[in-house]
Every structure is written in structure tokens, then in C-alpha cells.
Fold these 2 entries.
Entry 1:
Amino acid sequence: MPLATAPRIATVALIALLAALPAAHAVTPAAQVAKPATVAPSESQAAFDARMQWWREARLGMFVHWGLYSGAAGRWNGEAIKGSAEWIQRNAHVPTDEYARQMLPLFKPKPGFAREWARLAKQSGAKYLVFTSKHHEGFALHDSAVSDFDAKDATGRDLVREIVDAARAEGLKVGLYHSVIDWHHPAYPYRDFARLEHPLPHPLEKAGDKEDPGYAKRANLKQYQDFLQAQVRELVERYGPIDVLWWDYSNPGAEGETWRAGELMAMVRKAQPGIVMNNRLYRSLGYDDPQGSLKWFDRAHGDFTTPEQAIPAQGVAGVDWEACMTMNGTWGYSALDTHWKSTRELVRDLADTASKGGNLLLNIGPMADGSVPEASVQRLREMGAWLQRNGDSIYATQANPTAPVTWGRITAKGKRWYLHVFERPADGELRVRADGALRARLLDGGRELALRRDGAEAVIALPATLPDTIDTVIELAPSES
Ligand code: GLC
């Protein structure tokens, strides 16, 4: 679906104009930032629903951030660098040659790492795996004909092939996270993007010509767009079915047609008609503020939106969404971040997300050899064990159909509701607004629980202690079922 030419010219003209202005004048108040150009989705609602079905039922995916940054493990030249570890090049302000010189020798994928990831994803109960085919650093995990900053040149292996094949062998759907930001490609015009009110960051964004000689000659948006298109084409045409394209990321002034998004999306859809894409080729501003990103949601810009490190308080009625989250505080591996969330917190996040009609994409950051930190392995296995017993209350469920409750969350499959009890009310009674003749039983083990009516509420008598301290699930269903 090619975008109309007019908005494209307007965007390019705007970038050129902003580039020509001194930085102080390039500021546009956030409130006045125009909504990005829209193309009406050419797909019927029924076709869209059919394409989204597996994704909507999956509810849990495993995200993987892995690249050269994994070898740095959070330190540059021995010094701990603040910020998410996959941003280390930017946060330590390292030019790409120096970054490559130090990082490439550390990146040594062990044989079979991909099978370990795929098995772990499967054990965790995740139904899909999304991994970084290229993060902002610009290093591609596939064998790219248009770059030598890629896994094939660095390791002699096509790591995208290994990961895609391993995921498929475990029966998982597989997706690619692909960064449109690029800190390596010589033509990437980072200074134009750094001048925006909401800049797209770059390691050298503040450097003068001294540190980056030849920038003016090299920077060329068209060349970078061609490169981006070519790499994405390789990714979607060579590896069999790809189920998700997870773009990352844009800001006002450098979004959509800055990347020739209409052309990119059309090319991806042609190669992978069933694929599901997020909307970060367009504005991602506010992705860490769910309401912010949702304000801009437009189906023409992608199939789903991606609140980051947050579960929207009310969910998002009528919009497909996926909360992406880390298990500690970083996406890429850091040896310094040991602040892990508990399994209980993670399972509750999953139940919370499902109760609001969304998916959870939960991240691991493997080390440079592909090993997954033990803390992540342990938590994912524990989540998997919980899902073995309680998966019916998560997969293919819908959002809470009744009033919110104080003691936990509710998911549903039609008239069958799943009460996720996080805290046992002091009087041992669980109250739910629900009509009709109902029965209640523990989902795990099937023990029936006494139920009485109190006006519009069903009142369920809980056991003296909750059998599952993570999340005890009670199935509430019509009596005759
Ligand atoms: C952000 C970050 C990035 C991370 C991603 C995950 O855009 O730049 O490092 O990959 O979000 O959602």
C-alpha cells in the first residue's frame, strides 16, 4: 500500500527544513505535533481478525535482545555504563569502528544456542519468539549481501537461520525485531534526526566534525532507506514463514515515510501475507506511556501497539496491544543488573495483561555466547510450570467482562470466567458481579468451592489458605456446564 506522495514530500521537506534550521528553532511544541499521514487499511475486518487470531490467542511471547552489545555486558573499558545495556554504544559515545573492534571478538555464539532459546521459550509457555535481527548498533544477525557488519562475516554463521529454524522446530511462531535506527551505516543521517524535538539518538549526535570527519559527504537518507529496504527484503524473503515484524523505532519528524514505510510494509506483506506488524515504523513517542502511544494508534501504521515496560491501567479497548517487558531492568545482557522480578510478579503481570485483553512479550538478554542468564531460565521455567496447571485461564482468553476486583484479575472465555486470586480477602469470601446460576471450582485439581448469591454478586468461599501463592485460579461457569 504505497502512501500518497504528498505527505511523503511533506515529510521529506520537513526534515530538510529542520536540518537547515539552527537547533533552537527546530522545536515544535509536543501539542502541535501533527498526526502522521494515514492510509486506510485495505483489508476487511474479517481478514484482519483471521490474520490476528493466533497472536490474540498466544498471550505470551518471548522477546530476545542479543547482539554485539551482549559482549559488553554493561561495561565499557571496565567502567559501568548507566542505561539499558543494548544502548551501551550510545551511552558510552563510542564511534562504530571502535565499537566493532572491541565487540566483534567477544561475540562467539556457542553451537546449539538457538535450540536452547527455543526450548526455553516452549517450556515457559510462550507461543512465539521475537528476536533482534538488528538492533540500533546496526549489526545484522543474518547473512546480508548489503553489509559486512553481519553475523556471517563475523562468525561464518547465519544466526537468523539458526534461530528461525530452532523456533519452528519447537512449534513456535517467530518474529523479527528490526531497528530502523542505525548507528553503524555510514549514510544514516543522524544529525538530522538529532535536531528534532524528540531526537532519534546516536552515539555521535553531539560530536563535532573533528570526531566524525566526512559526515556531510556520507549522510544520505535515500541511500540509508535503500539499505534498510534491502536488508528487510532479505529477512522476509529467505527464511520461510516469518510471523511478526517488530519495528523499532520512530519519532515525530523521523517516522513513516522517513523510512519509506509504505513501501517497506507493502514489500513485507507481499513476501509474508500472514505477518503481524507493530506500529513503531510510525510514531513510537510515548511507548513507555501507554496512553501516549495509544493516542496515536492507527491501524494503517501497524496491527498492534506496544506499551513498553508498562501494562495500561485500563487495557485498550478495540486495539490490539502487547506489553513488552524486561525481567530485570535491561533488554540487552548486563552482568551488573541483578534486580530480577520474582516469578510471582511475572505471572501476575501475565494475568494482568490477559485480563485487559493484551499480550505480554517477556524479554531475555542472552550473553555473547548465547547462554541465557540462569535467573531468567529459572523464572521462565517456573512460569511454564504455572501455565501447565493454569494455561486455560490465559491462552485464548478475553479481557475481564465484569467489574474490576480488588483481590486479583479476571479473564474469560465467553461465559467461563477465570478468577485469578492474588490476595485472599480477610473474610475468605470472593465477590464477583455475575449473573445466572453458577458453579466454582479450582482450575488446578478441580475441587468444587461453595458458592452463594448476594444480589448481583456471586460469593465464593475460598479455602483457608490459597493453594497457589503466585495466582490461584478459580473457574466460574454456568452450573449446567
Ligand atoms: C526501545 C529501546 C530498545 C528496546 C526496545 C524494546 O525502543 O530503544 O533498546 O529494544 O525499546 O521495546
Entry 2:
Amino acid sequence: MGRLYVVATPIGNLEDISQRAIRCLNEVDLIAAEDTRHSAVLLNAYGIKTKTTAFHDHNEQDKVVELIDYLQQGHSIALISDAGTPLVSDPGYHLVSAAHAAGVDVVPVPGACAAIAALSASGLPSDCFLFAGFVPARAQARLKFLRRYRHAQLTVIFYETPHRIVDSLGAMIEVFGKERHATMAREVTKKFETIRKASLEALRTLVSGDNNQQKGEIVLLLAAEEKDKALEMSQEAEAILEVLAEELPPSQAASLTAQITGLKKGILYKAVLAMRPDVDD
Ligand code: SAM
């Protein structure tokens, strides 16, 4: 049985690749690349001559069968994407999960990831964060998606495309308010790298007033909602609310906790939403 290596590649600066990744790409029998022509730049830069095959969103399901068969014959494969860590908003999930099902060893070869690089330089709390992936393109879907994170008590990381950044900042102001803080990390590790931490309103002013800020690749990181003093309650009340919120819709959990504890239902309702940012109010 061969091994499947999941290999991270640079997100802009070709030097951001580990020695282990280079050795692995040299030693495997086959490199499954999201776009073989795109990856040729990296492979040529490091003199890597390993055979490549295309593995992308449009052929992933069919290609999985072929690649698992190849692994079962004893060959090894390195999976790479155009940039960063495969499977992070990139193809590879079906292959990795099929490899597990087939008893093939999956070996990560870690390295660059735009979300983590941006977080490390964002100036936002990094002890607890959530990666939310790409913000949807359509206005209604975007608002619905953003509302899920309205009361999140952690840093939320979004991927964004340059032509939608102004609209997305506008939607974020609508959902989170113009004072909420965020960091925009643009063109990380590249020549025009820009990392700005400011209010959503200030970021929108910066981006909409400068076309250059609407170019390249962008990670947006949203600061947590400031803790509302009014939501503070005893540990016992919080424990009751937490148990009920796991089982019941927010308004019912709040209502029952209000009956048990004597606290105001409105405050408890807000607290449930803060606990369960995944639940739509
Ligand atoms: N797998 C990649 C990773 O590990 O980060 C992400 C691939 S996803 C298809 C591409 C998105 O990642 C871009 O639209 C952007 O949001 C983000 N991204 C990738 N490279 C970036 C960079 N150098 N600077 C800022 N954002 C970047």
C-alpha cells in the first residue's frame, strides 16, 4: 500500500516551502495537482521532475477511484493545490476520506495557509477562532451567512475575492455594525502585502477609495462581539441555559431558563444566541 501525502505549498512567496515538502515532492511516484500548469512554476523552481496529474473540483469524484487504485498498487502520491494547504477551501476532501476508507496512510506535510498566516499577523485574539471559508457571492445568501456569526465570541476568518470586497464590507457593516473591528490581510507574503486592522467602516473607506486595495487575494478577519455586561449571569443560570439551548430552539430555552432562574427572558435569549452562533435567530 502506498502513502498519500497532503503537501502545503507557498501562498505567494516561493520560498515559503519546507525542505521536507521538496523532498516529498521529489520522492513520490505521482503529484496530483489542482492545476498542473500552475504548479509547474513551483516544481520547475525547485527542479522537481515528478510526473503530475490534474486533480480538481470538476474531476475529483472520478479521479478518486483511479488514484486510490494507484495507491493500492503500492505507489505514493503527493496532493497539492494551487496555493497553501490542500482541502482548505481547495479540492482533496473526497480523496483523503476515500484513502482513510481504503486503509491508505494519509500523511500531512504542513506549511503555508492564508487563513493561519493572516491570523498570526492580524492583531486579533488567536486563542479561539473559526474558519468560515468564502463569503457567498449573492447578496441575500451573503447576509444570511454573515448573520450566523453575529454574536460569535471568537475571531472569525473569511476568504474573499477582490471584486466582492467592497460589497462584503458593506454587508458586514449591516450585520455587525460599523464600529466592529476587523483585519484585512491582502496579498500575504507577496510584493503588495497589506495588513490593516481597523473598524469595518474605516476598512470600507480605505478599500472603496483605492482601487489597488481591490486587487489580489484577501483574508478578512472579524473581531469578536464585545461582551455585553448585561449578559453576565451566575454560573448556575449559565449551566441551565447551556443544557436547554443544546436541546431546544433559542426562544424556548430562554423562556424555560427565565422560569427556573427568575432572570429576564430577553437577556437570556441574547445569551443563547451568543452561545450558539450557528443557530439562526
Ligand atoms: N488552500 C489555500 C490556503 O491554504 O489558504 C486557500 C485556497 S482558496 C481557493 C483561495 C483564497 O485564499 C483566496 O481567495 C484568498 O481569500 C485566500 N488567499 C490565498 N492566498 C492568499 C494570500 N497570499 N493573501 C491573502 N489571501 C490569500
